[in-house]
Structure formats: structure tokens, C-alpha cells
Amino acid sequence: MCIEYSYNPCRSFSQGSGCIGAAVCQVSYDGQETFTLGTQESAWWDSAFDTNGVASLNYVYGNKKVSVSLQCSEDGNNEFEAFGENPVNTFRFQLTHKCVCWNAC
To answer: What is the maximum span of the chain, computed from C-alpha positions, in angstroms?
Structure first.
């Protein structure tokens, strides 16, 4: 079984008993536990584009750090990809969606 992640860039949500009022959650391998990885209140925008011209939203919760790269998709391709935890307590994701494009939503 794979680790699963949940993400809402707009509103806080809760999932299970360990992920309350979160922006990003992690679900354990066995599906029995949930963990908060970042909160909406901690969100900050990084407009310093990476080498691919992508900005990111970043979150923290305790010693956990999350970076979500934002990829514009004009063709309707909507995807949330998890790239895992590396190094420890540092999580990387990519959100591909039309609403990431300027003035698309």
C-alpha cells in the first residue's frame, strides 16, 4: 500500500483524527493514521520561479515543510503529484490545473 496525500490550496480541511484544520495531509501506509503536513495559516507564496518557470506555495507544520509547485494546464489536465519526503520532514508536490494559469478561473 502506498502513502496517500490530500491537499486543498483554498480551504482548511480535516481527515481522520490526526489531520485537523490542514492544507496538506498524509495518510499512513495502513490507512489507519493521518498526519498534518501544513496549514493554511502557514502558507506563503514563492514567486521566485524555478528553472522550469514554476512558482510554488509553501506550508509548514512543526518541523515539517511542504512545497507545492504550480503548473499551468491550459488543456484541462488536472493532476496532483507527490514526489515524497526527501530529506526527512520535507515534502514536494506538483499541482497541475487550469486554475494555476493567470486569470483562468
So the answer is: 40
